[in-house]
Design brief:
Number of domains: 1
Strand content: 15-25%
CATH topology: Nucleotidyltransferase, domain 5
Number of helices: 9
Distance between the termini: 53 Å
CATH architecture: 2-Layer Sandwich
Strand order of the largest sheet: 7-4-1-2-3-8
Shape: globular
Helix content: 25-40%
Order of helices and strands: EEHHEHHHEHEEEHHEH
């Protein structure tokens, strides 16, 4: 049975409403042993695009030079990491947004977090028999519920009818869910989840007939990193790359689940040859 070297999973969340209502959780998976290498490479990437190597960055902040953000994002493709993300559309009716137990973003972020944990325990990312594996997530005011979710699946895993998905404990994960709010790995996770959520939101907007001024740049960023989202060994019911979607309660407004595979195939396909190189 294949074993997995100790991994570190760093997660963040995003809330996108400009083009399409999406709440997401995602991030990066790295080998423990390569953390110093990745942190050094990220500082060098920031310097290469004209930022201070120790300068704190956040994808959603205001950038004096917007092109720097895209250039830095594309350099993530050079890092020895894997990525995954869960994107859930937020079409809660007003009645749900008025009730205490369903109005917070955690109502959707919590489910997205659970889907991410579920995808981690498999051949795509972390095979059984290794460890110890650590999971860290961005600091939140409502982190208690996320810790409870992690603790539950650390002990019991998931059950779908007669099918059992092993627990986090069985896959060598540590019992403690860590919290992070700064540093290179957290910045990379922030870029991945915010950048990809924004890209999906932009594609949804175009599908609805809207004009997105920076669509080409967003496509460029996605094209750079799409190979970091493994697509092998996904069951038929989880088709596509490691972009996890779920229709939930059908409202007729959902766009992601039925379109994400085609969008990703477009991004993963080799670029067309330049016109000057087309033989006549």
């Amino acid at each position: 049975m294949p074993t997995s070297a100790p991994k570190l999973v760093v997660l963040d969340e995003s809330h996108q409403t400009k083009h399409h209502p999406i709440l997401s959780v995602g991030g990066i998976i790295v080998d423990h042993a390569r953390v110093p290498e990745i942190e050094t490479a990220w500082r060098e990437a920031k310097a290469a695009v004209g930022l201070g190597p120790e300068q704190a960055v956040k994808f959603s902040e205001s950038w004096n030079e917007p092109r720097q953000r895209a250039d830095l994002f594309c350099r993530i493709a050079e890092l020895p990491i894997s990525c995954l993300i869960t994107l859930l559309e937020d079409f809660r009716p007003m009645g749900m947004k008025l009730r205490k137990e369903t109005r917070k973003d955690l109502y959707i972020h919590g489910r997205a977090f659970e889907y991410v944990l579920q995808r981690l325990v498999g051949v795509q990312f972390i095979a059984a028999g290794g460890g110890p594996h650590l999971v860290a997530i961005d600091r939140r005011d409502d982190a208690k519920e996320l810790h409870e979710t992690y603790s539950s699946h650390y002990r019991t895993g998931w059950i779908f009818g007669s099918h059992q998905i092993p627990s986090l404990k069985d896959h060598g994960f540590a019992e403690t869910l860590l919290v992070c709010d700064r540093g290179p790995l957290h910045e990379i996770a922030d870029f991945i989840v915010s950048g990809m959520t924004g890209w999906v939101g932009a594609r949804c907007a175009v599908l609805k007939g809207k004009t997105v001024s920076d669509l080409d740049e967003r496509n460029e960023m996605c094209r750079a990193v799409v190979r970091l989202f493994p697509s092998r060994a996904i069951p038929e019911s989880w088709r596509g790359w490691s972009f996890i979607t779920h229709k939930g309660d059908i409202t007729g407004k959902e766009l992601i689940a039925q379109n994400i595979d085609a969008w990703l195939r477009e991004m993963a396909a080799p670029p067309p040859p330049a016109k000057d190189n087309i033989p006549f």
